[in-house]
Write a structure and sequence with these properties.
Layout: H1 2-10, H2 13-49, E1 55-59, H3 60-63, E2 73-74, H4 75-82, E3 87-93, E4 95-97, E5 100-102, E6 116-120, E7 133-138, E8 146-150, H5 151-157, E9 166-168, E10 175-176, E11 179-186, E12 196-200, H6 202-209, E13 215-216, E14 218-223, H7 229-237, E15 244-248, H8 249-263, H9 265-296, H10 298-306, H11 311-350, H12 363-388, H13 393-397, H14 405-431, H15 437-459, H16 461-488, H17 490-528, E16 533-537, H18 546-552, E17 557-570, E18 573-580, H19 585-588, E19 593-596, E20 605-609, H20 610-616, E21 623-628, E22 631-641, E23 651-654, H21 655-660, E24 669-674, H22 678-688, E25 695-698, H23 700-743, H24 745-753, H25 758-794, H26 807-833, H27 837-842
Helix pairs in contact: 1-11, 2-8, 2-9, 2-11, 2-12, 2-23, 9-12, 9-17, 9-23, 11-12, 14-15, 15-17, 16-25, 17-23, 17-25, 23-25, 23-26, 25-26
Length: about 850
Amino acid sequence: MIRVALRSLLGRKVRLLMSTFAIVLGVAFVAGTFMFTDTLNRSFTSIFASSVGDVVVQPSDRADGMTTTGLTIPAEVVATLAQVDGAARADGNVTSVGTFVVDAGGKVVGGQGAPGLGLSFNDAPAGHGLEGLRIIDGKVPEGIDEVALDERTAERAGYGIGDTVQLVTNGSRPSLKPTLVGTVGYGDGGGLNGATMSVFDTRTAQELFLDGADAYSDVWVTAADGVSQEELRDAVEEVVPEEYAVLTGDEAADQSASELLQAISFITTFLLIFAGVALVVGSFLIVNTFSILVAQRARELALLRALGASRRQVTGSVLLESLVLGIVGSTLGLLLGIGLAHGIRAITATAGLDLTGPLVFAPRTVVAAYAVGIVVTVVAAYLPARRSSRIEPVQALRDDIALPEGSLRRRFVVGVVMIGVGAGAMAVGLVTDVGSAGWWVGAGVLTVLLGTAAASPVLSRPLLALASAVYRRAFGMVGTLAGQNARRNPRRTTATASALMIGLALVTTMSILGTSASASVDQTIEENFSGDVVVSNAVGTPFSPAVGRQLAEEPAVDVVSRVRFGMARIDGAEEFLLGFDPESIADIVVFEMLDGRANPLGERELLVAEDEAEDLGLAVGDELEVQVPRGTQTFTVAGIYARNAFAGGAHLVSVDAMVAAGYPDEDNTLFLTAAGSQEDLLEAAREVTADLPLVSVKDQADYAEEQRAPIDQLLLLIYALLGLALVIAVLGIVNTLALSIIERTREVGLLRAVGLSRRQLRRMIGLESVVIALLGTLLGLVLGVVFGLSLLTALADQGLEAVVVPWGQLGAFVVAAVVVGILAALVPARRAARLDVLRAIATE
């Protein structure tokens, strides 16, 4: 039986290899994602191991995972730590995120996601005696007019020792032009993964980033010989105040690496989702392929039964074929995954995440690739294999192998139940506060799609009947034959269409969400923003408050309103904190106050959104505990506002309150109103920011376009990846038609013998293909519209208030389906037309 299965497999190499295409893509996504993720882990773990001391003392908010803050450690603490038993030395460090290098052409180096670091230099060793930051070439910078850059940044920017470097900072001086006096790097030669590093002497770093305070962002304590990190940590904890966190170097490195990896974990999730889509769509192709092959081999399998093969052996022979197919597909997918990982790394490098070193090829990648590929292939082939064991010899020899109609009715019932369960899971994820809501929604969508696929042989009957009637009137006899062929085996027709349905359902959903998100951005800005000009950072990081102060002095500027962002913990959950200028915000943004006043002036007052106030039982005058960088503080509710798309569900406080709470003195956005004309205001703002390439100046239209840009970019990426699922679906149509023609070889010969021309035969097969493509497209469009509108309804309070269904795009999908149907039929139709009539008639 094993030899028979392998010979059967080798006899259908092309057909089966076409089926492996889906497995290859799915496995490639899984393998490529794991390789990229493992490379990320190794790279960041290596970097952070070289950038911490044996013991790290830092403000406690950083240990709690809060956002970057303005809290510091006084210099006298460093002196105390140097005297701790077991300590060889203690060194303070000044660190700022938001200092970027501008190359000679005026272009910012990096900045698209990877941070721009501003550091003070010290020669302290890293943890476990590793070499820390060192001068590679040149000397240590001294004074405001000297700087050192990491070697990779200097190379990318085209700067050499002695050149004047342009820097943009978020500190007291937004623009600097010091001389490059040295290049720096870590002792192990590791890169910074796209981050840039500008290094100053300690006093200069304090002037730039700490307003001249004799303090530090954190302190490294180096262990004496024979003292472990844990022993030194315990000794340090005894002498430092409670407001500081004390971590071993290993703990600090793990914390920093895990926080960063968690922040970019969406890349892994994103790619694995598309791997799942490819595998689900591909499973339909495999099911269809094996179903047709089992039907074609009915006589062969019946003969094996007659010669003594058991049902289990017959089933096992088909499963063996699928196992070999899964191994081949997994191997090819693993190889393609290596190339995909390189491609992902190249794409992320353009966004600032520039990984260095070779890819990590871990054993788990190989195990996952083969496990996924083999399991999906064998599971998809199980039902056809199981069906093969039910072939009775006499029935097979009569070529009378039609599944009973009752099986379709059972499938329909199962499908309807799955649709109901999936819709319930979506509802739970969308409208309740259940944990892991995304998984509920994802599982619900998948269940609805699979349920629709199961019920589609019955659901498709009206459409297939309509298509048959239209074909009969439009194309006469050829149309009648095409319609009858499409209706002859609804299981096969709908299984092929279901692969296209899944891809198009997801594309339609994303089209609706993307279009509605873009429209919501325009609506939000139009309804809530009344300013004339917006000043913000092009890469989303904060910028120096000096920009706002300079703009306020310009005659063309009437009002400068600052906006700042931060994260706080309220009632145990992380919440968004938005700081603004109470005196000017009413001139810029429209707020509907339901109770209280709109301008919290004190350092301990805040505004709360209506739904948040209801959830927490808050009223004007109530007190609310908020965990901020300086610890837990009590704020008074000054007002309650209607949830606003501009502010979302944020808790609103004054800029002064954010500074007092320990957040950095940095602005995220400035809203300006004109004292005269908007043109004069734009010109004045651009002059102030001329030396700051990261700070952009926009009017309302440009601001709206900037807010839409990330949505459009994400949609393009999603469309490109979903396009692979559609390619698999199209390949499924080609495969099904090709196998169907082989199955109907004798029938094709008889049709030719009674007068059907080659052109008519090609048209008949093309019409069959169009029916399959249209069926999958219409089912996908209906489900996609339902999914899209459901998600928009659930996300209405998150800022997606505009509901836009892109009917033009959906119409284009229908037209594309007809084109896809025609193109998919070209090769099978050409092959059918070239069959020798006499040989076709003589085919058993």
